[in-house]
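Input set for joint prediction.
Command: fold jointly, output tokens.
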Amino acid sequence: DAMVIQNPRYQVTQFGKPVTLSCSQTLNHNVMYWYQQKSSQAPKLLFHYYDKDFNNEADTPDNFQSRRPNTSFCFLDIRSPGLGDAAMYLCATSNWQETQYFGPGTRLLVL
Amino acid sequence: DQQVKQNSPSLSVQEGRISILNCDYTNSMFDYFLWYKKYPAEGPTFLISISSIKDKNEDGRFTVFLNKSAKHLSLHIVPSQPGDSAVYFCAATTNYGGSQGNLIFGKGTKLSVKP
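tokens >
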């Protein structure tokens, strides 16, 4: 009964090598979110899509991009990962102004 | 600057007793508050929420209290059970869920309930 699925659960990449994280949902929610959570820190919103409308947080680095090809899928692209980008990346979905449902997260390691 | 603060990184409670998790916020524009629970290797799951027009919301063993004047909210779990052992995140927002606001999380409090 998986509702928000994130693949892979663990991702290792090299410094500067582009990486893509994937999120899919079976809830048919119109909003999808990407959060970054570093160790012992609060999850921090990077951006969200309301349908196809992309909303970037003001302090999200340009190194982070996102794509939402359809309702079910959303991708997080990190163009040139640095050591400081190692974190847990959480995807969440919701309907407008309703509860957010989170996926299990992808832990990114940058070597 | 943290807008949502959970000053206790951890809390240990005996089974059957009350667990009280605290959260403070600085932004007076926040009008909706949520608690999420997170087990290891899982994403956060919604637990309970409260609107700023209320001062209390109860759901089974879980009650959230909001003190707007003090900019403080707390989550009470009574009675605590070993299965409640998890990290609890406090979150706040303005105009819940809309593009005008997003969830601002605290750093979390790790609750351990001992049998």
